[in-house]
Design brief:
Layout: H1 11-16, E1 23-35, E2 40-42, E3 63-65, E4 74-80, E5 86-92, E6 97-99, E7 106-112, E8 123-127, E9 130-135, E10 146-148, E11 153-164, E12 169-177, E13 185-193, E14 199-209, E15 214-223, E16 226-238
Antiparallel strand pairs: 1-16, 2-15, 3-6, 3-8, 4-5, 4-7, 8-9, 10-15, 11-14, 11-16, 12-13, 12-15
Length: about 240
C-alpha cells in the first residue's frame, strides 16, 4: 500500500528534500593528488600547499586559464560575493581563457557543465593573480576541502571523514577562522592511515559555525607520499527564523 504522508522522523532527509523551512545542506569534498613526505598543506587540488586565503583580501573577478583543447567548455564557478552572499556564475573558455563578470570574495567549487564532463587539460582559476582553484586533467570538478559559511546562515557541522592512500600516514586537522576573527585555529584534529582504515566521525551534537567562517581541512604526511581525501557535511540554517 502506498504511503499517504510525508516522513517526519528523519530531519536530515527532510532537509535534503527541501521540506524544512530555512535550511539547506552542503557536502564538501577534496583530494590532494600526492602529498610529499613530511609536508603540510590543504586537502585540495595542489600538492603540499596551504590554500591562499589572502588572495581574497579584496573581492575581484575570477580569471580562468586553460589549454586551447578545452575551448568552448562551459564552467560553473561557485562561491560568495563581496557581502558573503552566495554567488554562482557560468563562463565559457575561449582562446584558452575566460573571466567572470561578477566579483568573488570566495571560491570553493568549480565544475564543467557541457556535454563532456571531463577536461582535456588542467584548468586554473585565479583571483588577484593567485590560483584559488584548479580542475585537474580529466576530473571535470574541483576537489577542495574548504568552505565559507554564507552571510545570513549558521552552519552546523554534522560529519567529517578523511582517507589516506595505501600505506600513507598522516595527521589531519580542520582549521577554522570564525567570522570576524583574523586568524585560523584548530577546530578538530585526527589521525589517518591507509593501512589502518579511514577516519570517520559523526558529531552527535553538531558544531555551530557562524556566518562568514572559513573552514580549511589540512594534512601533514608523516611517512610515505600519498593521496589524501577529506569530506565534511554542513547543515545551513537561516538566522532569525521565527
Amino acid at each position: 500500500m502506498a504511503a499517504t504522508y510525508y516522513p517526519n522522523e528523519d530531519t536530515n532527509l527532510n532537509i535534503a528534500r527541501g521540506l524544512v523551512k530555512g535550511t539547506k545542506h552542503i557536502h564538501k569534498f577534496g583530494a590532494v593528488p600526492t602529498m610529499s613526505q613530511s609536508q603540510y598543506g590543504t586537502v585540495w587540488d595542489i600538492n603540499d600547499t596551504l590554500y591562499p586565503w589572502s588572495a581574497f583580501s579584496t573581492a575581484n573577478t575570477v580569471v580562468v586559464t586553460a589549454n586551447t583543447a578545452d575551448n568552448g567548455k562551459s564552467l560553473v564557478i561557485v562561491g560568495l560575493d563581496n557581502n558573503y552572499n552566495e554567488l554562482e556564475e557560468t563562463i565559457t573558455i575561449s582562446s584558452g581563457t575566460a573571466t567572470t563578470t561578477n566579483t568573488f570574495k570566495r571560491v570553493f567549487r568549480a565544475y564543467t557543465t557541457d556535454s563532456s564532463s571531463t577536461n582535456a587539460n588542467v584548468i586554473n582559476f585565479a583571483v588577484n593573480s593567485q590560483t584559488v582553484a584548479r580542475i585537474q586533467t580529466g576530473k571535470g570538478q574541483t576537489l577542495m576541502a574548504i568552505y565559507t559559511v554564507p552571510a545570513g546562515y549558521n552552519g552546523y557541522l554534522i560529519h567529517g571523514a578523511m582517507t589516506a592512500q595505501a600505506s600513507a600516514d598522516g595527521t589531519g586537522e580542520m582549521y577554522v577562522r570564525y567570522g570576524g576573527q583574523e586568524s585560523f585555529r584548530i577546530g578538530h584534529s585526527f589521525e589517518v592511515s591507509g593501512s589502518g582504515g579511514q577516519y570517520d566521525y559523526t558529531f552527535n551534537v553538531p558544531l555551530q559555525i557562524p556566518e562568514k567562517t572559513d573552514i580549511d581541512v589540512r594534512v601533514t604526511t608523516r611517512t610515505n607520499n600519498g593521496r589524501y581525501t577529506a569530506a565534511f557535511d554542513v547543515i545551513l540554517i537561516k538566522t532569525g527564523l521565527a
